Amino acid sequence: MLFTIITPSLNYGRFLGECLESVASQEGVTFEHLVIDGGSTDDSALVAARFPHVTWSQEPDHGASEAINKGFDRARGDWVMWLNADDILMPGTLLKVAEYVRSHPEVDVAHGDCVFVGSDRLLIRRKYDHPMDEMTLLFGGCWIPSTSTFLSRRILADGKRLDQRLRNSFDWEFYLKLLRSGYRFGYLAEPLAEFRWHERNLSVLHDTRRRAEDRQLQRRHLAERGWPEFLGWRLVLALLRPVLKVWRVALRWRTHRRLH
Q1: Helices (H) and strands (E) in the chain, counts
Q2: For a Cys-Cys bond, which of 96, 150, 199, 253 suits 110, CB 3.0-4.6 Å?
Q3: Domain residue ranges in the chain
Q4: Phi and psi at residue 95, in whole multiples of 5°?
Q5: DSSP string, 197-208
């Protein structure tokens, strides 16, 4: 089994080394690591040159979604994921995923948990998730961390790609699109990656743009599903959020109680 790791990057040299090292240190599996750089002017190229396993390319793009799509087009792996330049795979992650998907051949998308860390990699909190639930994904936000999500090659072979018109919420839109297309999600209840939370995160820098994109993709999903869009739907969502939070807590508790 071959894994493809895609890392979009732009001027993240201060974090890139730890990201690349976390992939290089994976054992018991074969992998390729494509770093798609959008034209960094910092030391990113020098950092990447220290890692023989990396396939480096540098060319202009219009954001992370385009860079990741370029990686999808070039990927040779049986399972593919994107790992942001400031995020880190935990030791043994690829082997755990390999074992999981071998025992669950019906799964097209394998997603696990992550831990939130700061710029200094000190632990902020562990994020516990649960098996796919469409309502909580649509109305509760993108709770699936892309940094610990793996895609079967079947998805890429079918031509599924990120929506490059979206600059922040492309991962959320992608998962909803895969749900509509009938792909099967499987949940691996273990932390697979470190998500680094810092002042340069896209969701922090462009919160207003993210919210506008969120509303757009929610409406798109409702229309594609043929579901009615409620009058005053923002009020409906505001009323649903506390209910969904309670439901998600129940899902997490039930899942992790059964597993542990």
Answers
A1: 10, 9
A2: 150
A3: 2-259
A4: -65, -40
A5: P-TT-HHHHTHH
